[in-house]
Amino acid sequence: MARVIAAERQQATMAERARIARELHDVVAHSVSVIAVQAELTPHTIPDLSPYAREGFQQIAHSARAAMAELRQLLDVLRRDGAVAADLSPQPTLDELEELVHQHRKTGGDVEFRILGARRPLAASVELSAYRIVQEALTNVRRHAPGAVVQLDIGYEADRLMVRVADDGPGFREDTKEETSAGHGLVGMRERAAMLGGRLLAGPVAEGGFVVAAELPLTAEGAARR
Questions:
Q1: 180-195 and 2-45 are packed helices; what angle lies between their axes, rounded to 10 degrees?
Q2: Which of 58, 147, 173, 197 gets the most CB atoms within 10 Å of its CB?
Q3: 112-156 pLDDT, tens per residue?
Q4: Is 89 domain-assigned?
Q5: What CA–CA distances, in Å, run from 27 to 3, 31, 41, 60, 93?
Q6: 210 and 102 in a common domain
């Protein structure tokens, strides 16, 4: 049984990495596209631009277009392997957490949602990962602790984003046969945190309930220091 569970988790990890790759493709491709467009338009908006500067902008635009083509090729490889399904919907951000909480409440769940610290724009990859972690944590509550009260906290700190989802349900053991689906969900959440150089802790607490807590560095420099 242990080998079966290990194999299932390995498969879940690979599937989640493929999903993350597709979502990051969307995020990065949008940013690179903006760079290409701005590099192409800027020479037309600045009078008396030197030939050297114009050539520099053209090289930036060319490099950005080439990067977009390589990103598309990478995604095509994943799709040919059957690991990534086509999805043209925009990737979610933290602005959509209110709707996520609303959907949970519509199913009978009870959520208290708090934003701690000064809210500010974050990198798209950080917002996407935080949203997916909350989404999966709430899904696990509905699946394994229906009716539990949830405390959702999003904390903005100087160099990191804190995500905490705690419920007062019975908790569960990740290594039991009945909880393999929840274990797979935790694998995906950990992959998303690790991708950014952050960390995620999850498990039952002594006083009852289950907690998912993630720390996500806000910059690549912050991730490198961890």
A1: 30
A2: 197
A3: 999 999 988 888 889 989 999 999 999 999 988 988 999 999 999
A4: no
A5: 36, 7, 22, 19, 11
A6: yes
